[in-house]
Amino acid sequence: MVLQKRLDYGFHGYQVPAIPRASRSARRRGSLRINVNDNQMCDFELLATVADKLLQEGKSSAPSNASAGKDPSATVKDSVKQEQHDEENLLKVEPSDQVSCEESVFVSEIFSQGHNQNYTLKKFLHAQNDDGLGFSSEIATSEHSEKVGCAVKLTICKHKNLFGNFPSKVEGGSPNYGESCEDIVEDKIDRKLEAEPRKIESLMNGTVADKCSSEDPMELDRKSLAFVSSDSSVEVPLSRDRIPFGSFPGHQDDVKVVSRDDDENSSGCTQPSTIIKAFRTRPRIGDRIIRKFLEPRYWKGAPKLKDDEEMKAVYRNRKICYTRQRSQRNLSCKRRKLFNRSSVLTSDGISSEGISSSPEKGINGDATGSGVKMHGASGASSSVSGQQASFQSRDSDGRQALDGVMVPELFIEIPETATVGSLKRAVMEAVTAILGGGLHVGVLIQGKKIRDDNKTLLQTGISHDDRMDTLGFMLEPNPAQAPPPPCLENSSFLLPSDIPQPLTRYPATPTLNPVTSDASPDPPESNLGNCVESDHDSVLFPTDISTVKTTLDSRALVAIPSMSVEALAVVPIHRKSSRSELVQRRMRRPFSVTEVEALVQAVEKLGTGRWRDVKLRAFDNAKHRTYVDLKDKWKTLVHTARISPLQRRGEPVPQELLDRVLSAHAYWSQQQVKQQSENWLLL
DNA sequence: ATTAGGG
DNA sequence: CCCTAAT
């Protein structure tokens, strides 16, 4: 069985903890290959890079050696395993790693359309390229709030041939992928294209026009339906035909825009390439539902949008959205450029593009309902029923930014005999990898939380097909880490069919294997270890939300667009030991006056710049005080000494000590200067 | 491993 | 406190 759940996090206003330390740690550990500056659009770019690379490879038709790309910053791994007669590829991408400190969230969504295989990211992208697959990534971040949406696919291993019953869609031109599909796809596409114009026109008449207005309608080029950015190396045809899946009549379009930043020079942004986004469209039903959410009442305002530099994008049907940003100029600039250059077409015709000039308007305007956006506002906690809330708008003034984000889809395979706890852990791990921790995962079935982690999925009925629909996951802020108000969403799932799939493990994530996780000795980390939902959530989320209707709605919204069952495994690489992931920020231990005294004394003697010695001399037995801590403390002491006593916080430090701090600081600073001048002279 | 600074 | 870059 395959469950696809989308976890939306933060749309309700929950603020994502700044930078998941886990990610950082991972990075440090080296699991992260990408090196990005805070000013860069890490996630976005990374994803873009990966996608781009993949696309390119696809063109060149290199099947298995995917990653080698030119961009050292991105790493993609493929592991291939033979399954039945199909090849299954799992791709790992380490999204979270890319998150820079500043950007805490990234979004990306990857979907694949039906094929009976797990796509590798690469395949995925290819497929999407040609057809229904979509890959999108966007990030919305603000210094204060971020939202993340995450799509999770859960597979409970039971049968084989998971994908058997999906209508298959196919990717078209990927070399590796079945070629047989191409014809079909193309055919569909063609038909779609033909139909497109009308849609587009109609859309244009609608409010959508506004959105597009800022940019030229070039995107409307019906013939090509593919949008290519200036540099872009990729063209993505939009496919209008989506194979209906389940109750949703499909039709989604995928849009992908890829652009390369060649112009880094101008903005200073140096990313090699970026993908703007690709989406897969969603069912119309979904649109309607979504529209509903677009209504103001569903929005939460985000207090803080700083600037609109962000781009916003709207997809017509889709609701994806996103964007906003932090005020980083660099980032903004870069993005802006990106967006300016590219626009997105959505299947139904319209596309939107992010435009710097009038982004907000565009987004909002979606009277057509086509665009979606949300922005991360905060606040409203659970308000909207949950998941859907994912779309919010930020300002009442009508401008909204989309903060929505797509997160990489996670594919989780778990045996029926696994316990709920392991399920939670598995999801948590996956999510944590992306979000960086700070969240708890809750499991809901038919609206009820399953608190007993020891029950097996079988016992809880999760594995029952009919229950799959009601399975939901909630992400809640980890009380320990995430102080902000709770908000979460549950997700509803969406895949109708159960597809048997062989049990496989993530190749890349050793620790993740749910099955084994229970046995693993890892101490329950504060984060993952106990994925227990907090009660407040319950309150926030009435169980009834799981009602059928809700389910549908949520599906529509959340639905992972692709019906594809393919399992795309996108796994952050860095999850090494869950333990490490969970690493938490060191406890705060304010320096006592005594310690300050010792520090001052040591510094007076040794000077600044010899923290190692200071540590040895005055804090040798305080193992929790590292030389870095001492250095930082000195820094703060100096600052404290300079500010007005009224502005000081915490345990007051005797003025006498502060005076000594200042004098010592002045003295040693002078010494330092002297040293330097001497060196100068010597040279 | 340390140091220096920015966040 | 964290994180990085540079030593």
TrEMBL record:
Which residues lie within the region annotated Disordered?
A: 58-88, 347-396, 507-526
Under Gene3D superfamilies, the record lists: 1.10.246.220
Where in the numbering of this chain does the Myb-like domain appear?
Answer: 583-638
Q: Where along the chain is composition biased (Low complexity)?
A: 347-362, 376-393
InterPro entries hit by this protein:
Homeodomain-like_sf, Myb_dom, SANT/Myb, TPR1-6-like_ubiquitin, TRP_plant
Q: Which residues form the HTH myb-type domain?
A: 588-642
PROSITE patterns attached here?
A: HTH_MYB (PS51294), MYB_LIKE (PS50090)
Q: Where is the composition biased (Basic and acidic residues)?
A: 78-88
- Where is coiled-coil annotated? none
**One of the record's GO molecular function terms:** telomeric DNA binding
Question: For bias kind Polar residues, which ranges apply?
Answer: 58-67, 510-519
Keyword tags: DNA-binding
Task: Cite the PANTHER family for this sequence.
Answer: TELOMERE REPEAT-BINDING PROTEIN 2-RELATED (PTHR21717:SF70), TELOMERIC REPEAT BINDING PROTEIN (PTHR21717)
- Entry protein name: Uncharacterized protein
Q: Which organism is it from?
A: Tetracentron sinense
Source organism phylogeny: Eukaryota, Viridiplantae, Streptophyta, Embryophyta, Tracheophyta
